[in-house]
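Researcher: Excuse me, tokens okay?
***
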Amino acid sequence: MAKRVFPLSKVYGLLEPGPVVLLTTAHKGKANIMTMSWHTMLEFEPPLVGCVVSNRDFSFDALKATRQCVLNIPTAAMAPTVVGCGNTSGRRVDKFESFGLTRVPASLVGAPLIAECYASLECRVADTRLMNRYNFFVLEVLKAWIDPACKDPCTLHHRGRGVFMVSGETIRLPSKMR
């Protein structure tokens, strides 16, 4: 066997769950953007998404208080903006203004959509039982928006420590329907 021991601190990069998203919140008159890659689908219908938002992040308090957010999915073309939002604190900076992003009012939640992202998911917090222990929120997607002009988006996937992968070719394989 040619395998070798792999550092546990790097396991995240092997199991990275999905595209990097820009989580938006709005609380006390201030909208914020947080770059997030720790999320996973939990259920198909209704769509449930589990995500980790550190209690040290500015977005944590807004999400906890309002129980609403939007998951905005950027394309790889937005990589510098995605990294910039992730390396900047919303406590000190208006990220919409600083990164030239456009707020779009959501229809069911108070947090804004980001116009430049190819998809946006309006969410409400459905379960906080793991929030105090793991900073884990369960979100129910209430409404989904997608840019029909973006036919085959390339998304960013975080591999850890400033390393990203861009999604590749889409393939279709036979699948059994239930």
Q: What stands out?
A: The CA atoms of residues 22 and 35 lie 5 Å apart. The longest helix spans residues 58-66. The radius of gyration is 17 Å. The mean pLDDT is 92.
